[in-house]
Amino acid sequence: MIKGLLQTPLKQIHDERGKVMHMLRSTDPHFKQFGEVYFSWIYPGVVKAWHQHTEMQMNYTVPVGSIKLVLYDDRPESPTCGELNEFYMNAENYYLLTIPRGIWYGFKAVGKDSAMIVNCSTIPHDPAEILRIAFDDPRIPYVWDVQHG
User: Fold this and answer.
1) pTM check: above 0.85
2) How far is the C-alpha of 84 from the C-alpha of 91, rounded, in Å?
3) H or E element: which one contains 39?
4) Is the peptide bond before 104 cis (omega within 30 degrees of 0)?
5) Would you tell me how many other CB atoms lie within 10 Å of the CB of residue 125?
6) Whose CB has fewer CB within 10 Å in the chain, the N or C terminal residue?
7) How much is the pLDDT for 66?
8) Cβ atoms 119, 105 nearer than 8 A
């Protein structure tokens, strides 16, 4: 796994009324600081990639729908430089993915429904600290098409 990524299983509490889905508490050992919480909707088959934050650490969960989240480490000082990781996230496979700054990432809604990603970031959104490149940029060795095998 890419150095600095953290995958934390999350608790869901079910009863006859519904459920509670935990995400992040200030007492969790992996909590750093609170910047903002936002919800990002993505339509089926759409790719939102590639992004890299220079300051923000993200804490992602997917309580609605299903996504494929792909990360690429091009940090020259990292022992995992050149490594790709794929994660499938949804309510049935519910966890928190902590993404450190400096990692390229993108995601795609998989299945027939839209998906909602929740991010509890360490700083408020700042357009000056995000880098963007096209989803098919050749610097990242990844193809978003469905792989038939």
Assistant:
1) yes
2) 23
3) strand 36-42
4) no
5) 13
6) C
7) 97
8) no
Which residue type, as a one-letter code, is found at position 29? P
Write the CB contacts of 45 (distance below 8 Å, at least 6 apart in sequence).
108, 109
What pLDDT is stored for residue 149 in this prediction? 65
Determine the pLDDT at residue 146. Answer: 75
Select from 144, 123, 148 the least CA-distant residue to 72.
144
**Ranges under pLDDT 50 in the chain:** none
Please enumerate, as own/partner, the contacts of 82-85 that have beta carbons within 8 Å and a separation of 24 or more: 83/2, 84/140, 84/141, 84/142, 85/1, 85/2, 85/5
Q: Which residues sit opposite 39 in a β-bridge?
A: 118
CB 108 within 8 A of CB 13: no
Q: Are 66 and 109 in contact (CB under 8 A)?
A: yes
Q: Which amino acid is at 73?
A: D
What is the model's pLDDT at position 148?
A: 66
Question: Could you write out the DSSP letters of every residue in 46-115?
Answer: -EEEEEEESS--EEEEEEESEEEEEEE---TT-TTTT-EEEEEEESTT-EEEEE-TT-EEEEEE-SSS-E
Q: What is the DSSP letter of 44?
A: B
